[in-house]
Amino acid sequence: MKAYCLSLGAGLLVGIVYHLLGVKSPAPPVIALVGLAGIVLGEQMIPATQSVLTRFESPVT
């Protein structure tokens, strides 16, 4: 939970700095969210695949 709070805090801080400097965010919000969703899904694909493969490889007793 601490990591989520730190991430949100860092994002808010960057957003405030962007606003104060008059800088637009590097990507439109929808595109940024889709990109973040891709990152999260990609990050979870390998552990999920390994888990599924481990279940199929282990003998049932």
The sequence of SSEs as H and E is: HH
Q: Mind describing the biggest β-sheet?
A: none
Judged by helices, strands and strand pairing, the structural class is: mainly alpha
Radius of gyration, taken over Cα atoms and rounded to an integer in Å: 19 Å
Annotation field: number of helices: 2
Overall number of strands: 0
Helix percent reads over 70%
Share of β-strand residues: under 5%
Low-confidence stretches: none
Distance between the termini: 37 Å
What would the principal axes of the Cα set say about the shape?
A: elongated
Mean pLDDT: 82
Can you offer a commentary on this structure?
The protein is mainly α. The protein has a domain at about 25-60. It is built from two helices and no strands. The longest helix has 29 residues, at about 30-55. The mean pLDDT is about 80.
Descriptive terms for the model:
single chain; 61 residues; mainly alpha; 2 helices; elongated; DUF1427
Q: What's the SSE blueprint?
A:
Blueprint: H1 2-21, H2 29-57
Quick synopsis:
By secondary structure, the chain is mostly helical. 80% of the residues lie in helices and 0% in strands. The chain has a domain at 25-61.
